[in-house]
Design goal:
This protein is α+β, with helices and mostly antiparallel strands. It is 28% helix and 29% strand. Helix 1 packs antiparallel against helix 2. The protein has 6 helices and 16 strands. It folds into 2 domains: 150 residues, Fructose-1,6-Bisphosphatase, subunit A, domain 1 (Fructose-1,6-Bisphosphatase, Chain A, domain 1), CATH 3.30.540; 125 residues, D-Maltodextrin-Binding Protein, domain 2, CATH 3.40.190. A hairpin with a 5-residue loop joins strand 1 and strand 2. The strands form 3 sheets. An 8-stranded mixed sheet has the order 4-3-5-6-7-8-9-10, with helices on both faces. A 6-stranded mixed sheet has the order 12-11-13-16-14-15, sandwiched between helices. The protein binds 2,5-anhydro-1,6-di-O-phosphono-D-glucitol (AHG) and manganese (II) ion (2 copies).
Length: 286
């Protein structure tokens, strides 16, 4: 059942990869529900994934960063809902950095507790896909077929620090946390694309990726259904952790997959990493 969804996403990935190579990186006049300007390739990638998923009998509905509302199919028996960010990293498409697509597969309801599988596609020098179910499987496309090249697992502690958000708008406690990691020898790695940045952490065994609450964006930037929940699921299945908060930070940070959202385009502050770094975040934000 789930296999047909993964298969449709793998076919979409090959198609989107070819679209990205055609050099049409112009902005349209439109914006999405979050208020982001849309590139032609944001819309094209959205249509490719949307159409390939909606034609599957097992899919009951979809929801995309580039669509205002969820789309449900009438009168069919499909049980799976798929939420996706069709093109993650729109702002770095023009400089030819790696970008991605992110997806989460939900059982009957778009809520974190109903997430049953998730993954992402990396459009980089190679076309890759990572799918988390019981474990986190890493696939590479060799021009003809997808090959599973093994599973991704995090160490207890890493060496990479990927801090998002505008630094001048960080809270004092966040500044102290990020600085303490650098003082210990963590290396800065931040491309501006959540997919390549988190893929780097997963491939190198760990570290910390953060997109905190800031004075200009109290709810962070990254969206729950399309970005944060799928990666939280992946990090947990890879032996790491993901924490964040909805609403006031005074209540502290909690496991992301226990959080409830009020709207499909909601964003939240979030932290993904290995166990050691996440314990440090909890301590810093206590
Ligand atoms: P999208 O292209 O889907 O709008 O997402 C971009 C996101 C994410 O990929 C990345 O981590 C973050 O924006 C970068 O934001 P900053 O430029 O504020 O660092
Ligand atoms: Mn994104
Ligand atoms: Mn996007």
């Amino acid at each position: 059942m789930l296999y047909s969804i993964i298969d449709a996403l793998q076919r979409s990935a090959v198609y989107i990869d070819s679209v990205l190579k055609k050099c049409n990186f112009d902005y349209l006049d439109s914006t999405n529900s979050t208020g982001d300007s849309q590139l032609g390739v944001d819309v094209e990638a959205n249509n490719i994934i949307k159409e390939s998923l909606l034609e599957l009998d097992v899919v009951k509905g979809i929801c995309s960063e580039e669509e205002d509302e969820a789309i449900y199919k009438e009168g069919l028996n499909g049980v799976y809902l798929v939420a996706f960010d069709p093109l993650d990293g729109s702002s770095i498409v023009s400089s030819n950095l790696s970008v991605g697509s992110i997806f989460g597969i939900y059982n009957k309801e778009f809520s974190a507790k109903n997430l049953i599988a998730s993954g992402y596609i990396v459009y980089g020098p190679r076309l890759e896909m990572v799918v988390a179910q019981d474990s986190v499987n890493h696939y590479i496309y060799n021009g003809e077929e997808w090959r599973n090249i093994g599973s991704l697992m995090l160490s207890n502690k890493g060496r990479i620090n990927s801090p998002g958000g505008t630094q001048k708008n960080w809270s004092t406690k966040h500044k102290i946390l990020i600085e303490s990691l650098f003082l210990e020898g963590y290396r800065l790695r931040y491309s501006g694309g959540m997919v390549p940045d988190l893929h780097n952490l997963l491939c190198k065994g760990g570290g910390l990726f953060s997109y905190p609450s800031t004075s200009d964006a109290p709810n962070g930037k990254l969206r729950a259904l399309f970005e944060v929940f799928p990666f939280a699921f992946i990090f947990e299945k890879a032996g790491g952790e993901a924490i964040g908060s909805i609403g006031s930070l005074n209540e502290g940070l909690s496991r992301i997959l226990d959080l409830n959202i009020d709207s499909i385009h909601q964003s939240l502050p979030c932290f993904f990493g290995s166990n050691d770094e996440i314990s440090r975040v909890k301590l810093a934000y206590k």
